[in-house]
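dumping these here so i dont lose them again. two proteins, back to back, each one seq then structure tokens. dont judge the mess
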Amino acid sequence: MRVVKAVKSTSIRMEFEDNGTLARLTGEHNQNLARLETELDVSLDSFGNSITVSGPSAAVKTARRALEDIYRQLGSGAQVPEDGSLISDALRWVAAGDAAADAGQGKGVETWRKKIIAKTPGQAAYLDLLRKREVVFGLGPAGTGKTYMAVAKAVESLKKREIERIVLSRPAVEAGERLGFLPGDMKEKVDPYLRPLYDALYDMMPADKVERMLVSGEIEIAPLAFMRGRTLSASYVIIDEAQNTTPVQMKMVLTRLGQDSRMVITGDLSQIDLPDGQPSGLADAVGRLDNVEGVGIKHLSGKDVVRHPVVARILNAYESDS
């Protein structure tokens, strides 16, 4: 005979003052509440300005904290994510603990189109470095937000006129700067490699504003090879896919930084496409600059992936073998 320990159940009733914010929290046809029910195996009943949560005590406590966090974030101006991640984001913060959530959720980045907040403790620490340090290295796998958060901070700085322009650059091909075989002018040659940066810009700014600023030079696309000899003043410089720079290229680009400028270098050291035997400039720089004043380095991991949940599980499986 097997004895099954009974799970203590409980029920709580939560009341919310702002019906408009509550409507955004529950979602169309209460779809967000339905998702939370599925995730935590609880029962949620919405009536008027209240929600009743019933189920196992631990799950009810988690649901209450998630609902409180979502309501507070939406009330402070945060937007409901278009990708349906509202509930999963909240549960991720609850799992991180009260201290991490309180420290990381409150501070956002204001862009023209939306307020962007960190979705994980790792992203919150990264965003804090972007605020405080002149040069920041963001390392980690795809989906951790290392490039997206950097673009967000650059757009906010341009919006506040803390800088005069955003400069976007990256190694144009996997193993060097061989652009000649591609059709079109220089912008057309480089554009395909900068698609993630463009996608982030259009997500944070009206399309016509992006186009105007590209024409005026307030947003500049600069192939890495063309950075040599320049001094980038009053600029927010983002070097993406930097794992495919050489040490010489990395030293060159780091020394382009001028007065009133910031620089963010992003990359994934597990995705180096340089020829065998060629060291990565990103790996070399991180090793050299770890304790240099004004430089911040943040390693993001599978725990910071904010794409489909299975992506995080896949990355964790690969990381467990390293």
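---- next one ----
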Amino acid sequence: MSTARDDESFRADVAQWMAQNLAGEFECLRHRGGPGDEEAFPELRKQWERHLAASRWTCIGWPEAYGGRGLSAAQQVIFHEEYARAGGPGRIGHLGETLIGPTLIAHGSDRQKARFLPGIMAGTEYWCQGYSEPGAGSDLGNVQTKAWQDPASGRWVVDGQKVWTSLAHESQWIFVLARCEPSSRGNKGLIFLLMPLDQPGIEIRPIRQMTGTAEFNEVFFDGALAGAEDVVGQPGEGWQIAMALLGFERGLSTLGQQMAFTHELELVCAAARANGAARKPAIRNRIGAAWMGLKAMR
């Protein structure tokens, strides 16, 4: 268990590393790449991921047995606070590090852990999430993407469509929730698959937003393939695996975004003071509500 003195020493280490490393070629990444800005400098942010990994600043909460630092929740909070304070860019490796990585550690096979965890940790392989669908939204019990097993090869064949798939165009892999039992309904008869995106039968189409950016995508599956060894859990257990992953998402995975939101609110407050808007009761009320929301999130 870490002590207060240990935590403050750790905070100083993180702050010092960020000051020394978020500089030079990475200087332009400060406060870039967050929600609504995820198209910013994708290749340089991937290079930043590899730079973080070289100093073991990726996957800091993973158990040491899998290459992580095994840091306490308190120290993970400290890391994200200092990362946001320094202006650390949005993490392209976020979904791999905080969602599919912990899910594989908890539920994946030894082969899956050996195949996928090192690339996530090294910042060399990136993941996106195949959950939401046009006809179901985020109602995962209503997914219609279908998967069936080819009896000759043992591979799973997938047809369907996913939507609002963040950074699919920058990813190599997607985890997909699909229906593997044709007569099943709701949360029964689902399968959780790991699929390479660079293959025939997968098409990625950007969704252009009113901001002009397109960090979200539609992903179409038309006879796309997943190996028999790339099923997490067993066929029919997809719901349990999907819920376990969402449990990790509701844990520490969004800490970085929360800290970045806090920085954005500080900028709003500074602008309101500078232009006099802070004297308007309606603006003050909205800023106060945002501040309370951030505290509740934390």
